[in-house]
Amino acid sequence: MLIALWTAFVVVLQFLSPKALMFAVFACVFAAWRFSPSRSMRLLRRVRFLILAILVLFAGFTPGEALLPAFPEISPSREGVTMAAEHAGRLLGVVLCVAMLMDALPVRRLVGGLHALLRPFGCVGLPSERLAVRLVLVLRYVESAAPGDWRSWLEGDHADGGGAEVIAFTRETFAWSDLVAMLVAVVVAAIWFGVAR
Q1: 58: which of 84, 130, 144, 195 fits an S-S bond (Cβ 3.0–4.6 Å)?
Q2: Which positions of the chain have pLDDT values less than 50?
Q3: CA separation for the pair 105, 6 (Å, rounded)
Q4: Which CA distances in Å does 2 have to 20, 64, 105, 124?
Q5: How far apart are CA 83 and CA 28, in angstroms?
Q6: CA angle in degrees (0–180, nearest 5) for 101-123-125
Q7: What are the tens digits of pLDDT across the range 45-98?
Q8: Could you tell me if 80 and 65 are in contact, meaning their C-beta atoms sit under 8 angstroms apart?
Q9: Are 21 and 13 in contact (CB under 8 A)?
């Protein structure tokens, strides 16, 4: 249920107007500071260069009215600054939501819940178990990789590359309460889109 609500919020976050997005990001910052401060700071440190790249690229290379009319050659555009703030805000909100979700659920239950949500799509060929295993590998790397570990990707030898590893996760059941939560999330999102537009 928690994963379904989290997914709905992340999707809605991508379609919010700038003013609504500002309030949503402030709410995410407050909730992350209250419920998941250490993990939130750790994940934000990992995406700081991505946020910086978004700010520089959108603010510096989007054509429009100069933000500093006295220095038009070096000034970012107003439209670019607006777009940069909007995209950085969406990324910030998603990262903080990920931090809170990972603090609320152990990795085994998080992956098991995702597997339960994806299991109905197995009839169309979606490999839910493979996706769940890949997710646990990504989450494990995000949690354990030290800063600067990207340099090791450029090296040919890895100390732990030769052995096989058994990955286990909790097999969750898809209950009626999960279906109700998903339907409520879809209805709330549809109402929100209707009001926002």
Answers
A1: 84
A2: 157-159, 161-162
A3: 12
A4: 23, 42, 9, 25
A5: 20
A6: 80
A7: 888 999 999 999 998 888 888 888 888 788 888 999 999 999 999 999 999 998
A8: no
A9: yes
